[in-house]
Amino acid sequence: MRDGDESAASAALLRWYDGAARVMPWRIGPAERAAGARPDPYRVWLSEVMLQQTTVAAVRGYFRAFTERWPSVEALAAAEDGDVMAEWAGLGYYARARNLLKCARAVAAEHGGRFPETEAGLRALPGIGPYTAAAVAAIAFDRPAVVVDGNVERVVARLWAVEAPLPGAKPRLTELAGRITPAARPGDHAQAMMDLGATICTPRKPACALCPLAGFCAGRMIAETLPRKAPKPEKPTRRGFAYVAVGPAGEVLLERRPEKGLLGGTLGFPGSDWTETPAPRPPFAADWRAAPAAVRHTFTHFHLELQVMVAEPAAPPPGATPRAGFRPADLPTLMRKVWDAAQGALSSQAE
DNA sequence: CAAACGTGGAT
DNA sequence: TATCCAAGTTT
C-alpha cells in the first residue's frame, strides 16, 4: 500500500463487502443497514466474546442456544452460574463464560441494562479487551474505532509488507490498520476486514486473484509468509488419573472445579494432579479398575494423558448427581472424553 | 510481558 | 500423526 491509496482501498473493500458479506446470526441485513438500523449490542457483544480465538463454525450453535435461552442482557444477568457454564461447555476458554456473566450483571446493575457506547466504557467491563471494545463500539454503536484482530493483523501485514514478527509488530500493525479505517461505516469496515481475512486473505494459500485489495498490496508476492510470528514453545506431556464413580441407580460423582485455572468453574470428574508422575487420588475407597483406553487431550500449552478409573459402589457416593440430572453435554470436552472412555468399563451401561 | 487459557477443523 | 491456528483477555 502506498501513501494516499488508503481511501481508495477502503472504498474497494466496502464495495466488496456490500456484495459478499457473509450472513451470520448476529448481523443485520444490508437493507436494514441501509435504513440506518444497528444490530442489537447484546448480540454483538455476545458474538464477539464467543468469537475470541474461536471459529465462526464453532460459535453458531452456541450463539443460537444462548440467545434463545437468554434473549437480553438482563435475562443473562439473572441466570444461574451453573446454567451458563453448562451452556458454554465445549466452547473452551471458560474464563470467557465467567466474565460473560460478570459483564452482563455489571451492565444490568450499573448501566441500566445498556452497554456503554464508548471504547473506554466497554473496555472497563470484564472480558472486554482492546479488540472486543473496538468491535462492539464500531459495529453496534457506529463509533470510528480501529478494530484489530488476527485477521486484520494478517491483512495489514500483507498490504504494507510488514516483515517484523508478531507480537512485537502489533503496535505498528495497529497504526497501519488505523490508516485504512474510514470515518464512515466503521463497523462495516471492521467486519469487511475480518471477512476478507477469513475468506480471501487466509493464513495459507491466500486467494489473491480474488482480492479486492490486490492492486494495493505491497506484500502480495510474499503473502503466504506474512505475518511472521515468533516460534511457539513445545508442548510437554502431563499425565493424571480421573475417577468415574457410578451408583446403583446411575448416580454420577461430579465436582465443580475451582474458579481459577484450567477449566475453571466447569463440572468434571474427581482426579489427581496433572504432572509427569501423578500419584493416584481416588475420591473414596472402592474397587477401582482401569478403563481399557486412556484419554488423550491437547490444551494450549501441554498434552494430557488421563488414565480413567471406574468404580460402581453398592451405595451412591455422597453428593453424587442423580442419573436424570447428569448430561455429558454439560461437561467440557476433556470430561466428555473421560465419560466416554469409562463406558467401556461400566457394567451398568448408563447410556 | 510472557504465560496461561480449549477446542475442532484443516493441512 | 503432528502442527497450525481462529473475530483475545487476563495476570
Note down, in words, how this protein is organized.
This protein is α+β, with helices and mostly antiparallel strands and 351 residues long. The protein has two domains: 6-225, Orthogonal Bundle (Endonuclease III, domain 1), CATH 1.10.340.30; 237-343, Nucleoside Triphosphate Pyrophosphohydrolase. 38% of the residues lie in helices and 8% in strands. The protein is built from 13 helices and six strands. It has helices at 6-20, 30-34, 41-50, 56-69, 73-77, 81-88, 95-110, 119-123, 130-141, 150-159, 170-179, 186-199, 333-343, and strands spanning 237-245, 255-256, 267-268, 289-290, 295-298, 303-311. Strands 1, 4, 5 and 6 form a four-stranded mixed sheet that branches. It has a two-stranded antiparallel ribbon with strand order 2-3. Strand 5 (295-298) and strand 6 (303-311) form a beta hairpin. The structure holds a DNA duplex (11 and 11 nucleotides).
Brief overview:
InterPro entries: DNA_glycosylase, Endonuclease-III-like_CS2, Endonuclease3_FeS-loop_motif, Endouclease-III_FeS-bd_BS, HhH-GPD_domain, HhH_base_excis_C, HhH_motif, MIG/MutY. Pfam families: EndIII_4Fe-2S (PF10576), HHH (PF00633), HhH-GPD (PF00730), NUDIX_4 (PF14815). By secondary structure, this protein is α+β, with helices and mostly antiparallel strands.
